[in-house]
Design brief:
By secondary structure, this protein is of the alpha/beta class. The protein folds into two domains: 2-201, 2-enoyl-CoA Hydratase, Chain A, domain 1 (Alpha-Beta Complex); 205-251, Orthogonal Bundle (Lyase 2-enoyl-coa Hydratase, Chain  A, domain 2). The chain is 47% helix and 15% strand. The strands form two sheets. The chain has a seven-stranded mixed beta sheet, sandwiched between helices. A three-stranded mixed beta sheet has the order 6-8-9. A hairpin with a 2-residue loop joins strand 1 (2-3) and strand 2 (6-11). Helix 9 (205-218) packs antiparallel against helix 10.
């Protein structure tokens, strides 16, 4: 499924959403964000049977952040307006997505592109990829959720350093800091991400969706609230077809065949 600046492919329960403006290093302005939001309509449509989402970029870059060239051509909206009208709705929908998200960082992920990568539940990065909090370089503050996502990924001290100095974070160090889960050789990023995605898509989709929601919500709950949320969520998961299949498969000593229901 082609959009002007994005591409969506759905196969065997895996949706691959590709930022598709390689000439601009997949920098995201309002037009690309419109395409990503439209693509998520199809991902969220139960009729399409999506059980895992893969995010990646076309060409040699994942996402270079905001498309400043559009601003220079007078096509961009004020930064704050684009945050409210496009970036924030995108982040909220990704946070509440019904299935896991695997991000294939095939190249540079800067500014808002770094934030987009951090929305992934599993992040696979190419060895030559890097991450960059580029905002201070143009006199702006981190946005697109950076000040919430980054310290929870790497800690406050490292988040502050990356944002104040604006230095590149190579993939190897990003792995050591806990920003990414896996590093692969250049050119193998999407293949590895798809391998992970297929495994997730064959799993108990409801439970996996609940797992990611519980961890997202844990950052805002105290211990007692989280215990209560686990209890309420477990009751829903325990009524699923996949739970019944999982228990039956365990007792019969065979691999479970999850339907995602």
């Amino acid at each position: 499924m082609e959009f002007p600046r994005a591409r969506l492919d759905i196969e065997s329960g895996v949706a691959t959403l590709t930022l598709n403006d390689p000439a601009a290093m997949n920098a995201a302005g309002a037009p690309m964000l419109d395409d990503l939001l439209a693509a998520l309509d199809h991902v969220e449509d139960a009729a399409n049977g999506v059980r895992c989402l893969v995010l990646t970029g076309a060409g040699q870059s994942f996402c270079a952040g905001a498309n400043l060239k559009e601003r220079g051509r007078g096509q961009a909206k004020p930064a704050g307006q684009v945050l409210e009208s496009h970036w924030h709705p995108l982040l909220r929908r990704l946070r509440r997505l019904h299935c896991p998200i695997v991000v294939a960082v095939n190249g540079p992920a800067a500014g808002g592109g770094m934030s987009l990568a951090m929305t992934g539940d599993i992040v696979v990065a190419a060895r030559s990829a890097y991450f960059l909090q580029a905002f201070r370089r143009i006199g702006l503050v981190p946005d697109v959720g950076s000040t919430w996502l980054l310290p929870r990924r790497v800690g406050l001290a490292r988040a502050m350093e990356l944002s104040l100095l604006g230095e590149k974070l190579p993939a190897e160090k990003a792995l050591a800091w806990g920003l990414v889960n896996r590093i692969v050789e250049d050119g193998e990023t999407l293949a590895e991400a798809m391998k992970v995605a297929r495994e997730l898509a064959a799993g108990p989709t409801k439970a996996l969706g609940f797992i990611r929601s519980l961890y997202w919500d844990s950052t805002e709950n105290d211990f007692e609230d989280q215990l209560d949320l686990e209890f309420r969520t477990q009751r829903i998961a325990g009524a699923s077809e996949d739970f019944r299949e999982g228990v039956t498969a365990f007792l019969e000593k065979r691999a479970a065949s999850f339907s995602g229901n």
